[in-house]
């Protein structure tokens, strides 16, 4: 089975060379682009499976590239940027990025992020997150058709909001979801100024889902940004 086709969007030649050399060494197929317009052209022409995107491009800001690609494609986008502020991460993730890797980064971390994204792609392609399907992740099972969730053989007694939160996380397994995105999806509004309320809902869900909420197995917190459902092997 072929590995995914990856589009590398990076204007810094040494960094682009590091990434493409790493991909080549691990048998990934790849394309490259040095600016935003070329990235959009390559993405529309070759339909890559994953995009690795720098934000500081010479012609377009990377966030603008995300917005434009998202008008016609849901391909996973992993941002690789020197911008390390939470506001930059949140802006990129809210625009539609799936993950955010801060420069300088290790080759091992880049490969790990790619593996996570590949697993998410495989999950989506297998159709296990479609309505009416049963999603499984370790001991967790969510039966979308029946509207219930189980941990092992035990049914989880969830409130409507907790169940919606769980389903949203499961349908985006491996992807960081920002506080704003979660609030808009679950309650139809932004809770930018009331993140504490969302944390309370997440804390009650974790108490029911995690054996040890202090060492979560399923839901990972990205401080100042949001939450991610981890893929349990």
From TrEMBL:
Response regulatory domain boundaries: 5-118
Residues found modified as 4-aspartylphosphate: 54
Protein name in the entry: Stage 0 sporulation protein A homolog
CDD domains xrefs: trans_reg_C (cd00383)
Keywords: DNA-binding, Phosphoprotein, Transcription, Transcription regulation
Function statement: May play the central regulatory role in sporulation. It may be an element of the effector pathway responsible for the activation of sporulation genes in response to nutritional stress. Spo0A may act in concert with spo0H (a sigma factor) to control the expression of some genes that are critical to the sporulation process.
GO BP of this protein: regulation of DNA-templated transcription
DNA-binding region: 132-231
Gene3D superfamilies from the UniProt entry: 3.40.50.2300, 6.10.250.690, Winged helix-like DNA-binding domain superfamily/Winged helix DNA-binding domain
Cellular component, GO annotation: cytosol; protein-DNA complex
Alphabetized SMART domains for the sequence: REC (SM00448), Trans_reg_C (SM00862)
Annotated ranges, domain OmpR/PhoB-type: 132-231
One Gene Ontology MF term: transcription cis-regulatory region binding
A Pfam family annotated for this UniProt entry: Trans_reg_C
């Amino acid at each position: 089975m072929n590995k995914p086709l990856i589009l590398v969007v990076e204007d810094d030649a040494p960094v682009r060379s590091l990434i493409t050399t790493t991909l080549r060494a691990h048998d990934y197929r790849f394309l490259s682009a040095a600016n935003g317009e070329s990235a959009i052209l390559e993405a529309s022409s070759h339909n890559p499976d994953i995009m690795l995107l720098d934000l500081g491009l010479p012609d377009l800001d990377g966030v603008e590239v995300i917005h434009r690609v998202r008008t016609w494609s849901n391909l996973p986008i992993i941002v690789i940027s020197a911008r390390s502020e939470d506001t930059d991460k949140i802006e990129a993730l809210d625009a539609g990025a799936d993950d955010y890797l801060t420069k300088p980064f290790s080759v091992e971390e880049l490969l790990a992020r790619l593996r996570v994204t590949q697993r998410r792609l495989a999950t989506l392609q297998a159709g296990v997150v479609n309505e009416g399907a049963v999603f499984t992740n370790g001991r967790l099972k969510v039966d979308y058709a029946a509207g219930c969730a189980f941990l092992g053989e035990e049914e989880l007694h969830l409130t409507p909001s907790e169940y919606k939160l769980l389903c949203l996380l499961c349908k985006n397994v491996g992807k960081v979801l920002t506080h704003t995105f979660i609030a808009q999806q679950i309650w139809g509004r932004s809770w930018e100024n009331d993140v504490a309320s969302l944390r309370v809902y997440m804390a009650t869900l974790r108490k029911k889902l995690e054996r040890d909420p202090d060492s979560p197995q399923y839901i990972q917190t990205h401080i100042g940004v949001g939450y991610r459902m981890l893929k349990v092997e």
